[in-house]
């Protein structure tokens, strides 16, 4: 029912909304839950597992029952701001994701501040005022749409609050973020905050946590009936939203807090049931004056009713009611405090886990610090704000308190559960877990709440145990006969659910990850290339002509490279410029082969191992000058190799004078491959003598191309064919590529053809044919390991294990059926191996292709003791068939290397 | 997310850095003279204390310099 007066709603702005298809009217300022209550809708969808009737229970993020489906699934009616046209469906447990992409724009923002205050209740507002007035850069974040916290529930100090809000808005260095939940507290005061569409990454010099407290439920028989609500929630609905949940109310409490609810609803409250045998006389007297009966030393044993509460049983008495407002005490909201590594302790008098020791630069104040009187909250807030500001280099006076009345809060008397059917005493409403379930867990020998939580699922629903967590701790303590509760579960981010869309922000779709394109990319697009992703790079995979599938295109490209001339954009290869008088010595120490004596103008293929002796990367290194090299790396590993060079140079050999610069993007590289490569070079670089006598294999020349572009032309080959690499300034890449294509001679080819050509020659690709457990010996590459010098990983190379005969070794495979293509990754077994698990594996296929040159399929594989098995047959058992293949040497084409010179 | 003081660039977020493990584990001067056990110790065995730990970091997305710091592994406080 909507009260005719009061509340912070705007009765002049009606809002229409529907719940489960039925139309209702609320007001601006309502939450969905308050509007529902104002319309007499207290009951929501039945419980997830047991199908028991449930109603709105809380008024905030701790709500366990009132889940609704909007466009977003599983929203809490208690935290959804009412808007006109809102259409909600009550949810029984699970929601559903919409099929539509989320069209909203989410964004991230980094913010740095001196003082971050989390929580906009009286303590938080006081802290922000105190800090903000000093000029310290202050951020105040609160999950609610409006600052005030408990003041709004209790209708107190509203004039002071209005002034404070105005002042905070005016303070130049203070920012107030309402509707913004601090949900994650990480190291060095890094606090993640979420508003509806913005994710804040706040790094604060000092944090003041004023996160308040959560009221606890009471555990008794049928304590889940609709109409049973947290006492503070009832008070909030009435005072803040003018939404009355019932006309005949009983209050059940263990502490002073719920008396405020009773007093504010005087006339509609018949009885206060207080577990304490001697409640504070002042409160009892006030109750009597208001015509409310106080039953001291009593507890509610059972709720009566089937679809909604109709009364309560207290001792032998039955008392009729339509709402039972419960308060099982208060839990300081130590979620963020605990996330920040702060330690809590159990306070016997307050019957709660309270903050004990902060680890980070932080204060925790107010109800979050188990201070429940308003004077105390304000005082702690003002003090913390001024201290925080001082710690960050500002100064000022502690503000004068607007309210100094002394309020004595009397200790609570907790009740964990009652005698009676334990299968109807609910601990976790959302998970339908009862005292009986907890007893099963403790009966099975569990003692720790962490174990009981996982066994019973208590606290694992969307609300993450905000009402059920401590209830469970109390029940466990009583079941185990412990004197007091023992420990909490671990608080982990997020404090409240955060959508993936918000976390992703704008980093979705095309912006999910940077895309790297070569200078020739547009040409590839125009000419129909199909691309593949290599790391962040887009590389042409193959260039299908009309009517061609991938296989046909690749075979055509391969034939062109082997019989005519073909070109590839090799710009993505990692390139590292290495300079300094000790550059040669450095390379000697990291590559398995020697570089110190490489002549200027020459290139050498090099292999890198990590200290554990496993192959890490490979590539060609050019010596540009006595003190300058250009090393190439595999496309995907360029950053890792650079990092690794830096690591050794800086941390192990700081005496070496050598420096590294990534120049991958600065160069564009065009590989011209095939027996007719010289014809193309003669047109594009007429000044360069490319003849066999004038241009040796594994050398390079700096020259000008026909159009005057300076270029570095290297005679290197990753295909076994005659080949030149034209390297130019990245900005000239597209122009030079056009010039090469304008000769009308070469066929463009992509990475697939490159892979086929190199595999036919048995050249490995690090990361494809190796996996971090492969040594040079495994690859049959002992020839590239210098026996004379030391290098990183040499000691590992020399271990007996590196030459163990049953290591997985690189071999070739020729399927018995020359049209059968082995899938890469296929496991290999010996013939006659029974296929009952565990099946002993011999190895796996690392590369597999159709070969134009061989006119058949072939593969590379790592096989245990493979070199001893050459000539033998292995099987690749697949889901639908088994492929037989013969093990061969890992070289299939031109083993004598006759084609290198064209 | 840690806030890491790069000696060259100042305080930066952890995402800019690479972790380098325990500090003060030098590459052996003469690896060839080590037994397999000693070499294995160098390669794989590191301290794992609860508390202060001297470790290496590289400001890989910034100045690319390596440096050491002491971090409390229990509280993540960067001690020096
Ligand atoms: Zn730096």
Automatic annotation (TrEMBL), chain A:
A single GO molecular function term of this UniProt record: oxidoreductase activity
Domain FAD/NAD(P)-binding: 114-351
Domain annotation SoxA A3: ranges: 423-506
Family annotation (Gene3D superfamilies): 2Fe-2S iron-sulphur cluster binding domain, sarcosine oxidase, alpha subunit, N-terminal domain, BFD-like [2Fe-2S]-binding domain, FAD/NAD(P)-binding domain, Probable tRNA modification gtpase trme, domain 1
InterPro entries given in the database record: 2Fe-2S-bd_N (IPR042204), BFD-like_2Fe2S-bd_dom_sf (IPR041854), FAD/NAD-bd_sf (IPR036188), FAD/NAD-binding_dom (IPR023753), GcvT/YgfZ/DmdA (IPR028896), GcvT/YgfZ_C (IPR029043), GcvT_C (IPR013977), GCVT_N (IPR006222)
Residue ranges of every copy of the Aminomethyltransferase C-terminal domain listed in the record: 808-894
Residue span, GCVT N-terminal domain: 520-789
This protein's UniProt keywords: Oxidoreductase
Record-stated family: Belongs to the GcvT family.
Name the record gives this protein: Sarcosine oxidase subunit alpha
Biological source species: Kutzneria buriramensis
TrEMBL record, chain B:
Domain of life: Bacteria
Gene3D superfamilies: Folate-binding superfamily (3.30.2270.10)
Molecular function via GO: sarcosine oxidase activity
Gene Ontology biological process terms in this record: tetrahydrofolate metabolic process
Coiled-coil residue windows: none
NCBIfam families in UniProt: soxD (TIGR01374)
The name this protein goes by in its record: Sarcosine oxidase subunit alpha/sarcosine oxidase subunit delta
Organism: Kutzneria buriramensis
Species classification: Bacteria, Bacillati, Actinomycetota, Actinomycetes, Pseudonocardiales
């Amino acid at each position: 029912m909507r009260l005719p007066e009061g509340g912070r709603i705007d009765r002049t702005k009606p809002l229409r909304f529907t719940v489960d298809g039925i139309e209702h009217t609320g007001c601006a300022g309502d939450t969905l839950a308050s509007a529902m209550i104002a319309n007499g809708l207290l009951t929501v969808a039945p419980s997830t597992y047991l199908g028991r009737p449930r109603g709105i229970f809380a008024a905030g993020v701790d709500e366990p029952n009132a889940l609704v489906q909007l466009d977003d699934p599983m929203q809490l009616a208690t935290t959804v701001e009412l808007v006109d046209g809102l259409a909600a469906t009550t949810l029984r447990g699970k929601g559903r994701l919409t099929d539509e992409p989320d069209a909203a724009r989410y964004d991230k923002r980094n913010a740095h501040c001196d003082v971050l205050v989390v929580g906009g209740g009286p303590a938080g507002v006081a802290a922000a005022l105190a800090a903000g007035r000093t000029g310290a850069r202050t951020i105040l974040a609160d999950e609610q749409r409006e600052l005030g916290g408990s003041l709004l529930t209790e209708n107190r100090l509203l004039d002071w609050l209005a002034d404070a809000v105005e002042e905070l808005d005016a303070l130049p260095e203070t920012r107030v973020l309402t509707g913004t939940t601090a949900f994650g507290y990480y190291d060095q005061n890094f606090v993640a905050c979420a508003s509806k569409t913005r994710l804040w990454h706040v790094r604060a010099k000092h944090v003041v946590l004023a996160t308040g407290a959560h009221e606890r439920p009471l555990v008794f028989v049928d304590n889940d009936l609709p109409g049973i609500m947290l006492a503070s929630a009832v008070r909030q609905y009435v005072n803040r939203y003018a939404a009355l949940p019932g006309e005949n109310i009983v209050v059940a409490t263990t502490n002073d807090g719920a008396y405020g609810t009773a007093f504010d609803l005087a006339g509609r409250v018949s009885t206060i049931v207080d577990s304490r045998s001697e409640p504070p006389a002042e409160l009892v007297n006030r109750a009597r004056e208001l015509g409310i009966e106080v039953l001291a030393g009593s507890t509610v044993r059972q709720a009566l009713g089937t679809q909604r509460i109709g009364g309560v049983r207290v001792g032998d008495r039955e008392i009729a009611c339509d709402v039972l407002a419960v308060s099982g005490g208060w839990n300081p909201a130590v979620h963020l405090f605990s996330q920040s590594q702060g330690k809590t302790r159990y306070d016997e008098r307050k019957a709660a886990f309270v903050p004990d020791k902060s680890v980070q630069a932080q204060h925790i104040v107010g109800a979050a610090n188990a201070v429940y009187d308003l004077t105390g909250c304000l005082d702690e807030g003002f003090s913390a704000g001024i201290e925080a500001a001082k710690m960050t280099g500002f100064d000022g006076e502690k503000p004068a308190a607007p309210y100094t009345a002394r309020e004595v809060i009397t200790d609570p008397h907790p009740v964990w559960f009652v005698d009676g059917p334990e299968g109807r005493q609910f601990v976790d409403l959302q998970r339908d877990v009862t005292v009986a379930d907890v007893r099963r867990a403790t009966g099975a020998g569990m003692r720790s709440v962490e174990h009981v939580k996982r066994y019973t699922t208590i606290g694992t629903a969307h609300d993450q145990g905000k009402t059920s967590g401590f209830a469970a701790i109390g029940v466990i303590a009583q079941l185990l006969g412990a004197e007091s509760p023992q420990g909490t579960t671990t608080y982990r981010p997020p404090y409240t659910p955060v959508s993936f869309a918000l976390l992703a922000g704008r980093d979705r779709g095309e912006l999910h990850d940077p895309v790297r394109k070569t200078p020739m990319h547009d040409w590839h697009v125009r000419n129909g290339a199909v691309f593949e992703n290599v790391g962040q790079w887009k590389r042409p995979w193959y260039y299908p002509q009309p009517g061609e599938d991938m296989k046909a295109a690749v075979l055509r490209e391969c034939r062109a490279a082997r019989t005519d001339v073909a070109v590839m954009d090799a710009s993505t290869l990692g390139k590292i410029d290495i300079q300094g008088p000790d550059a040669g010595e450095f390379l000697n120490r990291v590559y398995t082969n020697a570089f110190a004596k490489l002549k200027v103008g020459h290139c050498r293929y090099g292999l890198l191992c990590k200290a554990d002796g496993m192959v890490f990367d490979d590539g060609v290194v050019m010596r540009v000058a006595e003190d300058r090299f250009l090393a190439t790396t595999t496309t995907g590993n360029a950053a890792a190799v650079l990092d690794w060079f830096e690591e050794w140079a800086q941390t192990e050999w700081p005496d070496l004078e050598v420096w590294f610069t990534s120049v991958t993007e600065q160069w564009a590289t065009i590989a011209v491959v095939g027996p007719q490569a010289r014809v193309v070079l003669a047109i594009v670089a007429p000044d360069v003598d490319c003849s066999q006598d004038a241009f040796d294999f594994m050398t390079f020349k700096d020259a000008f191309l026909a159009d005057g572009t300076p270029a570095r032309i290297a005679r290197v080959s990753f295909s076994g064919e005659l080949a030149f690499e034209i390297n130019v300034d990245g900005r000239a890449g597209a122009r030079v590529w056009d010039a090469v294509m304008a000769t009308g001679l070469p066929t463009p080819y992509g990475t697939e053809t490159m892979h086929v050509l190199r595999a036919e020659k048995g050249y490995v690709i690090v990361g494809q044919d190796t996996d971090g457990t492969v040594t040079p010996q495994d690859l049959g590459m002992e020839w590239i390991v210098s026996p004379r010098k030391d290098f990183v990983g040499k000691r590992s190379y020399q271990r007996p294990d590196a030459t163990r005969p049953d290591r997985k070794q690189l071999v070739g495979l020729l399927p018995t059926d020359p049209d059968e293509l082995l899938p890469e990754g296929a496991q290999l077994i010996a013939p006659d191996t029974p296929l009952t698990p565990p099946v002993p594996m011999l190895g796996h296929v690392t590369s597999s292709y159709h070969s134009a040159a061989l006119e058949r399929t072939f593969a590379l594989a790592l096989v245990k003791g493979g070199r001893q098995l050459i000539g033998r047959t292995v099987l690749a058992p697949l889901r639908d068939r088994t492929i037989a293949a013969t093990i061969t040497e890992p070289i299939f084409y031109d083993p004598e290397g006759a084609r290198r010179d064209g | 997310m840690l806030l890491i003081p790069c000696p060259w660039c100042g305080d930066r977020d952890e995402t800019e850095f690479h972790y380098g493990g325990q500090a003060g584990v030098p590459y052996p001067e003469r690896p060839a003279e080590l037994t397999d056990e000693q070499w294995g110790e160098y390669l794989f065995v590191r301290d794992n204390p609860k508390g202060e730990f001297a470790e290496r970091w590289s400001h890989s997305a910034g100045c690319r310099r390596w440096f050491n710091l002491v971090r409390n592994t229990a509280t993540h406080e960067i001690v020096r």
